[in-house]
Amino acid sequence: MEKRVTSHDVAELAGVSRTTVSFVFNDDKQYFVRPETRQKVREAARKLSYYPNASARALASKQAKAIGLIMTRDPHYIAADNFLPQIIGGLLDVVKERQISLLIEWVEPGEQTHTYLSLTQAKHIDGMILLTPRFDDPGLKALEQLGIPCVIMGQVPGSNLPFVDIDNCAAAHMAVNHLIELGHTRIACITNAQLSYSSASQRLLGYRQALVDAGLDLDENLIREADFDSVSGYAAMQNLLDSGSNFSAVFAGSDTVALGVMAAIHEAGLTIPGDISIVGFDDIPEAAHYYPGLTSVHVPANEIARQSCRLLMHLMKGEAPEDTSIFLPTALISRQSTCEIERSQKHRQGEKLVHFT
Amino acid sequence: MEKRVTSHDVAELAGVSRTTVSFVFNDDKQYFVRPETRQKVREAARKLSYYPNASARALASKQAKAIGLIMTRDPHYIAADNFLPQIIGGLLDVVKERQISLLIEWVEPGEQTHTYLSLTQAKHIDGMILLTPRFDDPGLKALEQLGIPCVIMGQVPGSNLPFVDIDNCAAAHMAVNHLIELGHTRIACITNAQLSYSSASQRLLGYRQALVDAGLDLDENLIREADFDSVSGYAAMQNLLDSGSNFSAVFAGSDTVALGVMAAIHEAGLTIPGDISIVGFDDIPEAAHYYPGLTSVHVPANEIARQSCRLLMHLMKGEAPEDTSIFLPTALISRQSTCEIERSQKHRQGEKLVHFT
DNA sequence: AAGCTTCATTAACACGCGTTAATTGATTCT
DNA sequence: AGAATCAATTAACGCGTGTTAATGAAGCTT
Q1: What is the CATH number of the domain that holds B229?
Q2: Are B38 and B176 in the same domain?
Q3: Average pLDDT rounded to a whole number, residues B190-212
Q4: What is the distance between the alpha carbons of residues A50 and A48, in angstroms, rounded to a whole number?
Q5: How far is CA A46 from CA A39, A42, B145, B232, in A?
């Protein structure tokens, strides 16, 4: 094990003190180092290929220069999350330019409080971004009380922690309303996840409100829960089709789930949108290339990540930003998976509806 | 800013020395602490909610207890990588159980050497996993020379660094051969990325060899380069279709690219596999639900991640494992996107082929 | 009772850096 | 010329922990 190069070595070679080296490397405007001295130090550092030790620096400065992205899902579901790459991409963008590192952590259910505290109190990280925590996350109160810099991607009702999110309910409302405007009256819903995830329950709420606002029946038999991946969407749709319920459109809580839903529809010998229209949610990059092109609610994933990150940095500096809860806009992207309900189908549905009135 | 709880505080409350506290928390078998003392310390720590400071620990022990996942792609492409979640899921699995943190870093082209060295020399991390570096990565030699613990996911010809990968060439050969066995003779290839990424060039090589081994013509006009995302696959396929070249099957370098390819085929009014058969690569979880179900080469992404991680941990312990280059098996998963070439098409192709012989 | 061994604990130093207050040297002011 | 100002640098302390060598305490042998 060869000896490590320390700031002491650099100082010696440059003929200055260790303090000066430190000043140069943190280029603090408050302290004045002569340009030529600065130059000498820089050169010595380069010659020795000196890299300031991160741990020592963190220890002395009490700043880890790192933030954490914390996920509360099983690795199994993480692996199925097509949203994640966009999030990470956005975070890396911001973090990189500020010379901060990004830590990724997965917390086991039941371990939230411990994990959150050990990460921040141990100063592994200066702040954290919580990716879609669940309703019942017990660690959130602890974070709130201790005033730990923290931003939630998503929302948790009852928590006052800063967050960045879209208006899931309104966006779902818009998506379902699109189907209604196309003439659909019997619309099914497959959630994106269990309802303990707030995004899932909010989107379901938007679905319900859209139907109610349009004066349509709310048939609980047309609702199924999926579980993040397309396999669960596929299963949910199969179950729904097997149930013999009557519907001409589906609102899926995520594009990944929608993909499974579409596969089940195809497999049943039905066509999209001829027999069944479908709207997804997220508008992941692949949605446009699904078959047929998936109408979806565009969620600015990259922007959510960037804004979360920026907000977190403000909090870490101790600044209390004016807006501690940020809502980002969504938009409905209409593609080929939705169309006006066909006359024939309307008719068929009309007949069926007799059973329900 | 409230005072931090240190091991000193715990020692005081427990009525022991700081050293003893340290022994308890690292439960080192070498040192014997009486069970009752141990108990006292644990309780005191709990009462004060003590969390050992990570930086101080890293500084003193010279171990960061962290590894890094380093990516050499632009955030833009990272966002399009449906493979990434599986990789991260696998890594998290392994690091979690060993109490190690996972750092994610993106390195700018040209900054490789600097980034690699600053991350490891600064002891931000103890070791690193390089995700699909490029051929010409100049930082690899530095890593090799300095003996920094490091595992490559993928392969870089000319580098002796340990790696975990699949046999891309053989797998591609298998995929293309599947098409050949189905009777296809004019097979196009759309790579998964630029050829400076070794996986792309190796898969292309496998494609070429399969054709040659079968005694088929190698038409360079049937090869296009895509660039990670489905958009690039779509564009490449459009370009290929516009060129008027004749082919009855496509080998796509990744499933994500394949999705774009399929979209272009559908848009051209052709059917899959009726008019064109297609094979993908990676077998991401969604591939089964694409329309039609995508025949693909299954890559054990999760296992690649886990093995890389384990290998890295061995290297970090200074152990030199017997196998420093691990190849994992692949398998062709046959779905609905491939079928025997139709008689009519064979005929048509036969006619066309006259032009080429 | 003195010496030896084993077990449990501790004092003291090291890790590499940030930061404050103090020091030096040069310059300007009275 | 001496005092006062300012720019540039440094000595010295602290951050919270790991770890080694040393210290006690207790049991055993002779």
Answers
A1: 3.40.50.2300
A2: no
A3: 96
A4: 5
A5: 11, 6, 18, 41
Chain B residues in contact with A293 by the CB 8 A cut-off are: 263
Write out the two tokens for A141.
């109160």
Q: Using one digit for the tens of pLDDT, what is the confidence trace for B271-280?
A: 999 999 999 9
Question: Both A38 and A176 in a single domain?
Answer: no
The model's pTM:
0.90
B203: left (phi over 0), alpha (psi -120 to 50) or beta: alpha
For residues B216 and B205, give the distance between their C-alpha atoms in angstroms, rounded to a whole number: 15
State what percent of residues in chain A have pLDDT above 90: 80
Report if CB A20 to strand C is under 7 Å: no
Q: Which of B242 and B352 is assigned the larger pLDDT? A: B242
B9 nearest nt, CA–C1'? D16
Q: Is the pLDDT of residue A350 over 90?
A: no
Say if residue B192 is in the same domain as residue B339: yes
Residues 6+ away with beta carbon under 8 Å from B278: B249, B250, B251, B252, B258, B261, B262, B265, B272, B294, B295, B337, B338
> Which residue of A1, A4, A67, A88 to mutate against B (max B Cβ within 10 Å)?
A88
The pLDDT score that the predictor gives to residue B352 is 37
pLDDT value, residue A320? 73
pLDDT tens digit sequence for A60-93: 999 999 999 999 888 888 888 888 999 999 999 9
- As a whole-number percent, the residues of chain B with pLDDT over 90 amount to 80
Question: Cβ contacts (< 8 Å) between B51 and chain A: which residues?
Answer: 117-118, 121-122
3-class SS of residue A129: strand
Element of type H or E holding A277:
strand A277-282
Containing structural domain, residue B29: 1-42
Work out if B58's Cβ lies within 7 angstroms of strand C: no
Q: Which of B137, B144, B129, B132 is nearest to B109 (CA)?
A: B137
For residue A351, give how far its alpha carbon lies from the nearest alpha carbon of chain B (Å).
Answer: 32
Question: What is the spatial distance between Cα B68 and Cα A66, in angstroms, rounded to a whole number?
Answer: 13
Residue A67 inside a domain? The answer is no
Strand partners, A134: A197
Alpha helices, DSSP H, located in A219-342: 230-242, 255-267, 301-316
Q: Say what the pLDDT of residue A2 is.
A: 58
| Of residues A162 and A355, more confidently modeled | A162
Max Cα-Cα span within chain B = 93
User: For the purposes of burial, counting CB atoms within 10 Å of the CB of A29, is it exposed (0-12), middle (13-18) or buried (19 or more)?
Assistant: exposed
Q: What is the mean pLDDT of residues A296-311?
A: 96
Q: How far is the CA of B122 from the CAs of A6, A42, A58, B67, B89, in angstroms?
A: 10, 17, 11, 13, 27
Angle among Cα A295, A299, A304 to the nearest 5 degrees reads 170
d(CA B211, CA A81): 36
Give how many domains chain B has, as a whole number.
2
Whether B87 is covered by a domain: the verdict is no
Instruction: Specify whether the CB–CB gap between B190 and B250 falls below 8 A.
Output: yes
Element (H, E) at A279: strand A277-282
Choose the closest CB to A59 out of B59, B89, B122: B59
Do the domain assignments include residue A151? no
Q: State the nucleotide closest to B34 in CA–C1' terms.
A: C8
The answer as to whether A12 is a domain residue is yes
